Amino acid sequence: MRSLSIVPAMLVLSGSLTFACCQWLIYSYAPTEATMGLTQKIFYIHLPLAWWALFSFFLVFVGSVSYLLKRAPGADRLCAAAAETGVLLSGLALVTGTLWARKAWGVWWTWDPRLTTTLIMWFIYAGYLVLRGLNPPPQRKSLVCAVVGIAAFLDVPLVFVSARIWRSIHPAVFAAKDGGLEPEMKLTALGCVVSFGLFWAGLLWLRKRQLDLRDRLDTLASAAQQQ
Amino acid sequence: MLELHRVARLYGHKVVFRDVSCTCAAGSITLLAGNNGAGKSALLRIMAGLSRPSSGTAHFTMPAPRVGYLAHATFVYPALTALENLTFWREAYGLDIAPADLLAGLERVGLAAHAHEHAGVFSRGMAQRLNLARVLMLEPDILLLDEPGAGLDADSLALLHQEILSARKRGACVTLVSHDLVNDVPLADRVLLLKAGKLAFNGPVTHFRELAGGTEQACCA
Amino acid sequence: MLRLTLAVARKDLSLTLWRGNGLMQALLLGLLIFFVFSLSQEVGENLSPQSAAAVFWLSSTFCQVLIFNQLYALEEVNNSRLGLLLSPAPIPAVWLGKAIAGFILLLFAQLLFLPAAVVFLGQSLHGPLPPAVAILLLADTGMCALGSLLGALAQGQAARESLLSIVLFPLLTPLLLAGIGVGAQIFGNPSPNGPGAWMGIACAFDAIFLATGLLLFSFIYAGEE
Asked: B204 forms bridges with which residues in the sheet?
């Protein structure tokens, strides 16, 4: 039995620790925003969630392409892990986004292009996970999921642009969300994104490894059955 | 005409069969035998190019052969008439056949009187005859049959056997999956036996008979 | 390739329109949606042009899901899918054939939905007609390109309709927004920007998913059981 790599655990741990340190940046280093006050701090959590969610979906796309080209089951499991992580993070990004909207604009939901895109992505990939939960013949499921994974990511820029046009046709009630960030704020946001990225990478790795191990166990079990 | 090299087929984690290598020659009939779940149909689908082997390669030695595939499912559209069904498949396969010849094709399988009836009212035997007409229209170089005789009456079965033999005469490479060894072994030139995930026998039918002690019933035991 | 495409399109149209109950289910569902939304109007009040356009596209989307589901179900009755796969023509020809059949059926349904919008939702046509027709055709093209690609994915699954809906609906968002945006203008809610930007989106969507369908269909439509 190979021993399991400790890298993912280290990633999660270091991500958590650095993100904890970022709390200092958020509350002491970065200035409090003039109009929104303390609520603006949500931004430092919202941003990394949204970014890494998007990156997870990009990984689903890459994994899907590579599955179609090489038919490696590992690529399919990467897609599964990335989609799950992405749906989780984008779900949290939506929650923080609505909190932000409530405080900043007085409504729970606005057709802000970024928020809308996140919502649509959440729907798309939640549907993708439903598809993954079904039980068609295994090879066929992987193929179908890979095709949907590719179509879904190609859709993302279209959703974003159309949400943007949609809003510009409506009276623009709300000003741009983060028009002018002060340099301290930028640095803090960057720190949060990077440290959360470590956590994300660890999480993804652990989930992928879990799926790999499950696959190996299934293989061993069916080999044992056949003998 | 058809070559398989170390073909394996997995279903999820389960190995259906592996390491199957064989060739099927022009003008011969190969019988593919094995118990339920041995993967006969899966192997035939790989031969037809309908599914990819999990590993290994399957290819035709001639460029762009016409592949005829006849299985238990009849490929018939119930809401179309027999002739419309045939016309559709002619278009789908890009064949140049005159309408009169399509009727002649129906005649050949004994369906000429039913050419303008909806296939939905056909019995299983008639639908399978229509399916046979579709395959014959192709004049296939490679004819793959997956227990096409299941549920057919004696007349239809005789017609099927006759057409299989004339396909061989024409130089087609025929592979036949069958349970009915008593009836089908006499047709065959070669036998492939799938057993316990492997190709347990691959050789001429006479040799197969000797191994099985002369009786067809014992062949699969 | 073209021959297989035309054969599939022609056969599907004749099977759907002239044999069997065909389009009825999809049409009734669409019309019911119009009726239900007409209940949201108070007495003497009409739905806003934008809401009406949204209802129109909602009906079209549901209708399209049912259409493609049915088109692909035709091949499963006696496993004719395998027969199509054995054709020497490239497999995406089937995708194109089904997309064309679906496109015509969808247009046919929308021809009924438009008067339904006028009758039930109290709309009248105001805006210039050419851009309206253009966006209708562009949006339908994209919907059918994607619908035909994903219509095949649910083959052999229980609850195919709902599965197809949850995967397809969010992906169609850009087209729906474009359709609703221009539709609102036609029903009398003019916008300074005009339909130009929406045309662009619809064109981009069509280009991307026509290419995707052509490239990826043969992976989804296969002989695996």
From this structure: B190
- Give backbone dihedrals phi and psi of B10, rounded to 5 degrees, phi first: -110, 145
The number of folded domains in chain C is 1
A-chain residues near C149 (CB < 8 A): 147, 151
Give A4-16 pLDDT, tens digit per residue: 888 888 898 999 9
The range of the structural domain enclosing residue C11 comes to 2-220
Q: Does residue C148 sit within a domain?
A: yes
A218 within domain boundaries: no
Number of structural domains, chain A? 1
pTM of the predicted structure, to 2 decimals: 0.90
Tens digit of each residue's pLDDT (9 = 90 or more) over B147-205 = 888 778 888 888 988 999 999 999 999 999 987 777 778 888 898 888 888 888 888 88
Q: CA B145 to CA B153: how far, in whole Å?
A: 17
Q: Which CATH superfamily is domain B2-218 in?
A: P-loop containing nucleotide triphosphate hydrolases (3.40.50.300)
Provide the domain limits for residue A198: 7-30+38-171+183-212
Is A222's CB within 8 Å of B12's CB?
yes
Whether C225 is in a domain gets the answer no
Q: What is the DSSP string of B122-161?
A: --HHHHHHHHHHHHHHH--SEEEEESTTTT--HHHHHHHH
Instruction: Indicate whether B218 pLDDT > 60.
Output: no
Contacts C169 to A, Cβ<8 Å = 123
Q: What Rg, from alpha-carbon coordinates, does chain B have? A: 18
B5-23 confidence digits (pLDDT tens): 999 988 877 888 888 998 8
Distance from CA of A160 to the nearest CA of C (A): 8
What mean pLDDT value characterizes chain B?
87
- Our CA-based measurement puts residue C18 at a distance from the nearest CA of chain A, in whole angstroms, of 32
